[in-house]
Design brief:
The protein has 900 residues and is an alpha+beta fold. 32% of the residues lie in helices and 36% in strands. Strands 1, 2, 3, 4, 5, 6, 7, 8, 9, 10, 11, 12 and 13 form a 13-stranded antiparallel sheet that branches. Strands 21, 22, 23, 24, 25, 26, 27 and 28 form an 8-stranded antiparallel sheet that branches.
């Protein structure tokens, strides 16, 4: 039986579909060497295309109005020579015309043509040597402007493609990229580029990823051949680059490019018959009078001189009044700090010396050293050392400010580290405070250097730093050793772990505390089985008696390493022991509760272990005596990240023996400690209470001492000791010198320092510059009354924080930029009231006042040599309500007892 007409139709349709698919497979999936299967770029052809290349810049909100420009014109491709599939294409960019955004331009595009330097530039044909879809050589006319040459590289990159589905690796105007080709139809295919490396362009990145930026890029181009596969019908290329602040993803910029070639017509052109490539290029050069230079498709950064350059001394003059000490903790100095860092990075040694020598700058000299520590050039460092003598007592504050700034920078200079290490080893007249700050700075810079560049010369410097610290640690006596333990904390070297463990086993009580403190700051991957075994012995005192702080540090490490059920059970049962240092039991109880509140799996395990033990599963077992606390409270909640205040207070005799308030940023599985304020004291129980809970672990005649320790972005700085000995303490009590709020630590610091250059597929380069600064002030006061037997203390952290971000395209014929500024002034107050007239009552209040967050956006477009300038501005502000953080029930009861 013959098939029906409908059956024939179905069979024909299936056959046609199968034929089309197979055709597409042959065209787009043939071997790379089989470009002969298609007849692209036949010798003697002249192909004319309509060109349009667009750049648009915007804020993260892509619905907002953007700025940008496009260039249109024609591209003529002449196939003038061929030999063994190798072809020479002569490409001419004709009549390029700039179009810019304008409020007077017609809708909906909003662009209009505008005169520019592009109209008058020298514009000659260029050559590409093309074989099987690869641009083997690019020959550009000598003497043309870099802006035009980069644009031509973007055009040349369009002619690099493959007809094979699958992955590849290519280098073009976007950089060195991973490329994937995929068929869309028998005549269309898609080219997608990922992980493009902008090699050879300057960059700066924060070592801490949470303080960095994220660049989300999409690069794709669609190619369409004509139905007979004899020429390219169209190429449509698109780039999209969204740059966001990692810690706050609603702050960001966006750049998009669109580039298209649309076929107009095909004609005939002249050809050359030379036998070799070298001969034909030589002939073309002589005939046209063009001198060609061979280059890669990689675009190059233009050295654009900024307009209205202000020298560093002049910039300091302009901004001096904003840097006064009384403004610390506010936005004024934070904003100008960014301007001064930018100016100082291009300053000469003479400029820096002039600013440091000016008598007008005497009041802000320490702020200038804050700025100069971030420059990290050898020239700047040498200029500073000529003015700043480390061995003079009157320079202590300025020296420390400069060294702190060096240590906070995310871009340490190895030559500066080497010079500072030499100064530490050779200069014997350095005051003790400076000496400690110097070795802490060297250790911090070496640790950051180890993350940045593992080259052999840097590894030697890092090794020399470690050897110097360990040698001094070995030969130092008594309290002289302590600074080197703190230096090891900043260095965070894996090879120092066994040495620290040895001091824990055999050193003094204080050496054990400092060793555990250093180990706790190391990456958790360095807490091997030996460290965990030592932590168990220290916490449970299986080998010797340890200081209570050593035991709590050891417990912190054990609890941070996902302890087994057996270990967790032992730590819970520890709450039932008769350990005389009862505050440790309270500390462990609070720390386990803190972890359980943030981890449901851990909480389930704890509850299961408690319920299985009758002695634990009751009010008495779960209510250990003591005032120690461990808690976390959110101060920032957003879609991209969270900010937490983590407070740990290890108490003794009713006062804080060791306390910390940590500001922690969290994103996904990442956490970054931005700032840690540590409070320490010792030997004060005789002033407060006759109850001795020390259990013999500390000497009865322990010297009275108190102070604070700061760790800023992973770098510990020298402790600030308020008093050392009963004599100094009583002097403060009777004179009232501590009863007025006094600054303990003031600094200007860079929080973010990110510079990227993104090569765009159409030949332009986008400069991405995101930076953030803080003006920080830590102040405090304390009033002690021995008559009324009470004390009041206040620790206040104030910060003005500003973040700026910009993405710009800067060429000789057009400049476009989008930028934002975000700022906030914030405070955190820790007020402590102690009543020791009868029973000890301790009330802590942690408060954060109201704040105002401002977010301003600016979009600017200019044409050099023209009056044209368009600016779009947007201003936003949000109120951030203040809060009083709840401590715990016991603290509330204490506050009620004191204040009624």
């Amino acid at each position: 039986m013959l098939p029906s007409i409908n059956s024939y139709s179905i069979l024909y349709t299936l056959f046609a579909w199968f034929l089309g698919v197979c055709y597409g497979f042959v065209l787009l999936s043939s071997a790379a060497g089989h470009f002969s299967d298609v007849k692209l770029f036949e010798i003697g052809e002249s192909l004319r295309y309509k060109l349009q290349s667009t750049v648009l810049l915007n804020e993260k909100d892509l619905t907002a109005k953007n700025v940008g420009f496009f260039i249109d014109g024609e591209v003529v491709v002449d196939v003038i020579w061929e030999n063994d599939n190798q072809k020479v294409l002569r490409i001419q960019l004709k009549s390029p015309q700039l179009h810019i955004r304008s409020r007077k331009a017609p809708s909906p595009d909003g662009f209009k043509a505008h005169t520019s330097k592009l109209d008058d530039v020298v514009n000659k044909p260029f050559l590409i040597v093309w074989k099987d879809g690869r641009v083997e050589k690019l020959l550009l006319p000598k003497g043309e402007t870099l802006s035009l040459l980069n644009f031509k590289k973007g055009i040349a990159s369009l002619f690099q493609f493959q007809l094979v589905d699958g992955p590849n690796s290519e280098t073009d105007a976007s950089g060195k990229c991973n490329v994937t080709y995929s068929s869309v139809s028998p005549t269309k295919f898609l080219k997608t580029k990922t992980e493009c490396d902008s090699q050879g362009l300057p960059y700066t990145r924060n070592l801490d990823k949470i303080l960095g930026i994220e660049v989300n890029s999409l690069r794709r181009a669609e190619y369409e051949l004509d139905s007979t596969s004899t020429h390219i019908e169209s190429i449509n290329s698109q780039d999209s680059h969204l740059v966001i602040l990692s810690a706050k993803e609603d702050l960001g910029t966006h750049v998009e490019t669109l580039q298209s070639l649309i076929f107009i017509e095909k004609r005939r052109t002249e050809t050359f018959s030379e036998s070799s490539l070298e001969e034909v290029i030589d002939t073309i050069s002589k005939k046209s009078g063009i001198i060609f230079t061979q280059e890669t498709l990689l675009t190059e950064k233009e050295l654009v001189q900024p307009e209205d350059v202000i020298s560093f001394p002049k910039q300091v003059d302009n901004l001096r009044n904003h840097l006064k000490p009384e403004y610390f903790g506010t936005l004024k100095p934070a904003k100008v700090f960014l301007d001064l860092v930018n100016s100082a990075r291009s300053a000469t040694a003479a400029d820096i010396a002039k600013a440091l020598s000016s008598k007008k700058n005497k009041q802000i000299i320490e702020q200038l050293y804050d700025v100069l520590g971030y420059i990290q050039t050898t020239e700047c460092h040498e200029a500073v050392l000529k003015k700043l003598h480390f061995d003079k007592e009157e320079n202590i504050n300025s020296v420390e400010r400069y060294l702190w700034s060096l240590s906070f920078s995310s871009k340490p200079n190895p030559e500066i580290v080497k010079g500072l290490l030499k100064k530490f080893s050779k200069d014997i007249n350095i005051p003790e405070k400076v000496k400690e700050t110097l070795i802490l700075t060297i250790a911090s810079m070496a640790q950051k250097l180890s993350k940045l560049s593992p080259v052999s010369s840097n590894l030697k410097i890092i090794r020399d730093v470690e050897e110097t610290i360990l040698a001094n640690l070995e030969y130092a006596k008594g309290e002289e050793k302590f600074m080197y333990f703190r230096a090891l904390k900043n260095l965070k070297s894996p090879t120092t772990v066994p040495i620290l463990l040895n001091y824990i086993r055999n050193g003094t009580s204080k050496e054990g505390v400092l060793s555990w403190k250093a180990l706790q700051s190391f990456d958790a991957t360095l807490w091997n089985e030996e460290v965990l075994t030592a932590a168990k012995k220290t916490f449970f005192q299986l080998d010797r008696r340890h200081d209570s702080s050593s035991r709590t540090f050891a417990a912190d490490i054990l609890l941070a390493t996902k302890p087994s059920d057996d270990l967790l059970k032992d730590m819970l049962e520890f709450l039932l022991t008769r350990d005389p240092v009862y505050e440790i039991k309270q500390y462990i109880f609070q720390k386990i509760k803190l972890i359980a509140d943030g981890n449901s799996d851990f909480k389930e395990r704890v509850q299961r272990l408690i319920k299985s033990n009758r002695k634990l599963n009751n009010y008495s077992g779960m209510s250990p005596r003591g005032l120690s606390i461990a808690l976390t409270r959110r101060f920032l909640t957003s879609e991209s990240s969270n900010g937490s205040l983590v407070t740990v207070q290890e108490m003794k005799s009713g006062i804080v023996k060791r306390g910390t308030i940590d500001l922690v940023m969290e994103k996904g599985n990442m956490a970054s400690q931005l700032l840690s304020l540590g409070i320490f004291s010792g030997g004060l129980h005789s002033f407060i209470s006759s109850d001795n809970d020390a259990g013999g672990e500390e000497a009865a005649d322990e010297s009275a001492t108190a102070g604070i320790e700061l760790t800023v972005m992973g770098t510990q700085i020298r402790p600030f000791v308020f008093f050392n000995g009963q004599g100094e303490l009583m002097g403060h009590v009777w004179s009232g010198t501590a009863s007025e709020k006094t600054p303990a630590f003031q600094v200007l610091a860079l929080l973010q320092d990110n510079l990227e250059h993104i090569r765009l597929s159409n030949g332009f380069i986008a400069k991405v510059d995101f930076r953030g600064a803080t003006s920080f002030d830590l102040s405090g006061k304390i009033e002690i009354s021995l008559w009324n037997r009470n004390a009041e203390g206040l620790v206040q952290k104030s910060a003005g924080i500003v973040t700026t971000g910009s993405t710009s395209i800067d060429t000789m014929f057009v400049k476009s930029q989008v930028e934002f500024t975000a700022s906030i002034e914030t405070k955190l107050d820790l007020q402590t009231d102690i009543d020791f007239s009868s029973n000890i009552h301790l009330c802590m209040r942690l408060t954060q006042p109201d704040a105002l967050f401002r977010h301003n956006i600016f979009k600017v477009e200019r044409i050099p040599g023209s009056k044209h300038k368009m600016r779009i501005s947007k201003y936003k502000k949000y109120s951030v309500p203040g809060t009083t953080y709840s401590i715990n029930k016991k603290n509330n009861e204490m506050c009620s007892a004191i204040f009624g």
